[in-house]
Every structure is written in structure tokens, then in C-alpha cells.
Design a protein that fits this description.
The chain is α/β, with parallel strands linked by helices. The protein has a single domain (about 5-230), classed as Class I glutamine amidotransferase (GATase) domain (Rossmann fold, 3-Layer(aba) Sandwich). The protein has helices at about 20-30, 45-50, 80-95, 105-115, 125, 155-160, 220-230, and strands spanning about 5-10, 10, 15-20, 35, 55-60, 100-105, 120, 145-150, 165, 175, 180-185, 190-195, 205. The longest helix has 16 residues, at about 80-95. The protein is globular. The structure holds manganese (II) ion. The site of manganese (II) ion has 9 residues, from loops.
Length: about 230
């Protein structure tokens, strides 16, 4: 039986839930069966969804509201996604407590970091001396800046190299890291690009979009294969 992977997608103004096919294809290619949680405020639905799924993917999208990490919203912050914040923080708390594998991508790393007590840069260009374009102009399937992998981390064990290929579509990033998380990759200009859970359950979080690279790039494909393997365990 293939593991059932619970997908957290974008919620639009009409409360429709959307997930981009690149995420679904990456999960399917790695051997998982994706299912999407439609937007809900119903606690029972969330609990049943968490018990049903073998693992969870928190996908990209809009900004987490800064009040979730104790800051007033600044002008350069994007429009916060309040419905997603509420739903995803509830799903994360429940899934994390249950010890189920979690893969967090782009907004996902930010959401997970905030859920674990960390903070974010609300807007990199106005708050951090970036020297790279973290909002690349090239298409999503084109690599941009590499990331530098820290030794003695799960990513280093998985990839077996000091660098890997990434793309970059973010204006926010992790500022202070949450409790139970540790950094496993930085960009050349010092932005946290990947983190993992140091507690017992499998938790991997990436600031870039591996789902857009996995088709053609073995390193990025491995991220999904590692996750699905954990969900099978
Ligand atoms: Mn980046």
C-alpha cells in the first residue's frame, strides 16, 4: 500500500482550495498517494484527516501573519493568508504531536518555524543585506542559487555533497529558528534555506521549490523519496 500524503494547499478569497500539480506529481513519482484537505474550521475534520494520512506536505503560498510570531505587520510584508494560517497551524500541531512525517516547502518552512516558536524576516530586501536574487526571474523549473549544506545533518547524509541545486521564489525567510529545529542549509548570503526536526519524528523543511526541479534533478528528487520512505516506515 502506498502511503497517503495529506496536502495543504492555497485557499483563495472564495475559500476554494488549490494545490499545484507539481507537488502532486513529485509525491506520486516518489511512491505516495496525495490527498488534499479542503479549507475547514471543523476540528473533527482536521483530526480525522491527521489520523488518516501517513505524512503531510505544507506547500508554498502567501505570508504567515506576523502576529503569529509576536510582531506588528510591516508595510513590506505580503498580504497575510489568515485562513491558511489557522488551518495549517492546527494541522501541524496535531500531526507533529502524532509524530507523523512532515515535508514543508517555501511558505511551509516559514509556517513550521512559526509554529515552533521561531520568527521570520517579513521582507528580505528591506530587512537583510541580501546579495542574491531570492525572487528569481527565471521560470520555476530553472535553478538559480545553490545552497550550502551543513555537515552532520540529514540533508548532507542524503545528498552526500556540500552543495545542491535550488531555485528561489521567496521574499521572506526564517530569522530565529524554532524550538526542535536545526538548520541544514544556507544560501551563500546567509539565508536559512533548509531545516530539520531534531525531535524523534521526521520533519524536513526547504525554502526553495524542489517540486519544480525533481523531474530533472536527482538531488531534488531524493528529497521526496526520503520523505515517502519515512511515511512508509
Ligand atoms: Mn533563496
Amino acid at each position: 500500500m502506498t502511503p497517503i500524503i495529506g496536502m495543504l494547499g492555497e485557499v483563495d478569497a472564495e475559500k476554494s482550495t488549490i494545490v499545484q500539480t507539481a507537488y502532486l506529481r513529485s509525491i506520486e513519482n516518489a511512491g505516495g498517494t496525495p490527498v488534499l484537505l479542503p479549507y475547514t474550521q471543523e476540528k473533527k475534520t482536521i483530526q480525522r484527516f491527521v489520523s488518516l494520512c501517513d505524512g503531510f506536505v505544507f506547500t508554498g503560498g502567501g505570508d504567515v501573519h506576523p502576529n503569529r510570531y509576536g510582531e506588528a505587520i510591516k508595510e513590506a510584508c505580503g498580504t497575510p493568508d489568515l485562513m491558511r494560517d489557522e488551518l495549517e497551524l492546527a494541522v501541524f500541531a496535531s500531526a507533529y504531536k502524532a509524530g507523523k512525517p512532515i515535508l514543508a516547502i517555501c511558505r511551509g518552512i516559514q509556517l513550521v518555524n512559526v509554529a515552533l516558536g521561531g520568527t521570520l524576516y517579513q521582507d528580505l530586501p528591506t530587512e537583510y543585506p541580501v546579495t542574491l536574487f531570492h525572487r528569481q526571474k527565471e521560470p520555476k523549473f530553472s535553478p538559480s542559487h545553490d545552497v550550502e549544506i551543513i555537515e552532520n545533518t540529514p540533508l548532507h547524509t542524503l545528498i552526500g555533497e556540500a552543495k545542491m541545486t535550488a531555485n528561489s521564489f521567496h521574499h521572506q525567510a526564517v530569522k530565529t529558528i524554532g524550538e526542535g529545529l536545526a538548520v541544514m542549509a544556507y544560501s551563500e548570503d546567509g539565508i536559512i534555506e533548509a531545516a530539520y526536526g531534531t525531535e524523534s519524528s521526521f520533519l524536513r523543511a526547504y525554502q526553495w521549490h524542489p517540486e519544480r526541479l525533481a523531474d530533472k534533478n536527482e538531488q531534488n528528487r531524493l528529497l521526496f523519496e526520503e520523505f515517502i520512505k519515512a511515511c512508509n516506515g
